[in-house]
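ARCHIVE RECORD
Type: protein–small molecule complex
Small molecule: S-adenosylmethionine
Source of inputs: curated submission
Record status: active
Notes field left blank by submitter.
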Amino acid sequence: MTPDADYVHAAFSRIAERYVTVNHVLSLGVDILWRIRAVELVADWKPSTLLDVATGTGDLALDIQWELPEVEVLGVDFCEPMLEIARRRGLRHTLCADAMHLPLPHSSFDAVTTAFGLRNMRDYRAALQEFRRVLRPHGHLLILDFSMPEGIFAGLYRLYLHHALPRLAGILTSAPSAYSYLGESIEQFPRCETMCHLLMEAEFSNPVYLPLFGGIAAIYYAQV
Ligand SMILES: C[S@@+](CC[C@H](N)C(=O)[O-])C[C@H]1O[C@@H](n2cnc3c(N)ncnc32)[C@H](O)[C@@H]1O
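STRUCTURE (tokenized, with ligand):
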């Protein structure tokens, strides 16, 4: 299944107002810890300019803006209702645009981040190439997204993902289909070595994979 951009756009427009709360409830708050780890990694790179792609309601971009005030952060998303909330929450610079065709010059950012965004894009390879295009030489890319754990935990996690989560989210958002889509998108999203391979195909170097919380999420980072 390739994510359909119209479906993704409509789904996030529908859940925008409740996205932040529902996210923290469904992840029992651990997504906050994953973003803290992401910000720590970004801090080590000491970027001056950073593009947060698929910024949504701005969760990661706002953490970076608050923790690293010296960094100029631009959040880009193609869903205006999500961006509107990001602005309301204090994200200073936003741009409504498709991540697959960024209206931004070549080599214009020291770092690109994307949290729970790449998985929703229709062509991962093309998206990675677009991220690389806007990065300066030696710039850094960080991807935070869900993954699938291995072993016995995988079975339990699939029960949660495909059965409990859409029901619970349906009650909280009145949009259960958006969360059935979440499970399907996680299943088909490249993980571990496959993602590192995609990064190298897009001409990123030294890709690193950090599993989070038993492998239900992962951070990948690499350099131009
Ligand atoms: C799950 S939210 C993630 C939001 C935020 N990064 C976070 O960590 O909570 C996914 C976001 O990706 C955006 N998105 C998906 N495909 C996109 C694309 N092709 N271009 C721009 N934004 C996109 C959606 O509009 C949505 O706001």
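CURATOR ANNOTATION: Residues 5-26 form the longest helix (22 residues).
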